[in-house]
Amino acid sequence: MAALFGWGIAATGGIARTVGNVIAKEPGMRVAAVGSRDESRAAALAHELGGAAARGYGSYAEMVASPDVHAVYVATPHAQHRQVVEAAIAAGKPVLCEKPLTATLADAEALVAQARSARVFLMEAMWMRFNPLVRRVKALADAGELGELRSVHASFGFPFPYDPAHRLWNPELGGGALLDLGIYPVALAHLMLGAPESVEAAGSVGPSGVDAEAALLMRWPGGARALLETSLVGMLPMTASVIGTRARVDLEPPFHATTRMTVHRYDGAAQEFRIDSAEEGLAGELREVRDRVHAGDTESPCMPLEDTLAVLRILETARLGLGADAF
Ligand SMILES: NC(=O)c1ccc[n+]([C@@H]2O[C@H](COP(=O)([O-])OP(=O)(O)OC[C@H]3O[C@@H](n4cnc5c(N)ncnc54)[C@H](OP(=O)(O)O)[C@@H]3O)[C@@H](O)[C@H]2O)c1
Q1: What are the pLDDT digits (tens) for 233-254?
Q2: Hey, which CATH number is domain 129-280+311-321, 2.40.128.110, 1.10.3720.10, 3.30.559.10, 3.30.360.10?
Q3: Are the CB atoms for 232 and 205 separated by under 8 Å?
Q4: Are the C-beta atoms of 258 and 238 separated by less than 8 Å?
Q5: I want to staple 127 with a disulfide (CB 3.0 to 4.6 A). Which of 159, 238, 281, 316 is the partner?
Q6: 138 in active site
């Protein structure tokens, strides 16, 4: 029997536990190790997710070095991704890194260059791209079913109490609405229309110097556009629509993890699509890493590194355009 694909998880926070639980349920893989700044936290989460066979380490570096770890999942705050990813690539371990890959475009470019030169697999954990309904919208658009794409409308954001220590507001941890939440509308628009020719942003910056809210207008040659919003202060609808000359697709909230979408055609016909659980997006990205690594690939065609860089370029343009502090 083939050995289970062993994941090493870097960090013990909210998404580390969520994704760790999906790994634990997924056939063919297991949580082999957890790394943390604190050994007892690592041991507790390793035991919870992987049972007695999983080990906790008091540093990310020790976890990365474990022979039981076949791939590393990085779930530290954005500004702390680079160091862990660098160590994993240097150890020759495939990496799935939470979104955004890094807090700055320059850091992301450095990691992509390192992974390519070392021929080590690297992918951003943009689980929205593995949601079966998001994949279906893309397939419908590519097949011409929506006609010519004219616009994408999308928003993602909610009020999060101001706390300069929390990662969403703390510049030391890569805080701000755009990098954490705005990345989803931007990634959807980029998936549907590619890199825009211009990006304009309006919004506000919070007391800690990170962006608190932003509206983006992005344009493509020929007049196609995206109208996007993100916020840490306002209650946004979290919906998305992809609008073409023959049909519009509405994704139910939260659109990045949607379980229901409707295709409205110009002749009045409407067709609804559903999936059972948004977790399919998380399971999908984990399977993608395992399958690509087994195939000897160093990138995913479903979540290419060029797309990760293109989305970060847009986010950085918008952040700095709003007057947020540079990281
Ligand atoms: N895909 C998704 O749906 C999704 C959802 C939420 C978040 N995320 C992404 O996942 C990353 C983590 O988010 P989260 O919500 O899980 O954050 P979180 O709950 O605050 O956890 C972050 C963890 O990172 C570790 N860490 C390392 N250096 C740290 C530092 N200087 N300050 C604080 N924690 C530090 C800590 O674990 P140890 O101390 O044990 O090492 C901490 O528990 C972010 O990049 C975020 O964008 C993705």
Answers
A1: 999 999 999 999 999 999 999 9
A2: 3.30.360.10
A3: no
A4: no
A5: 281
A6: no
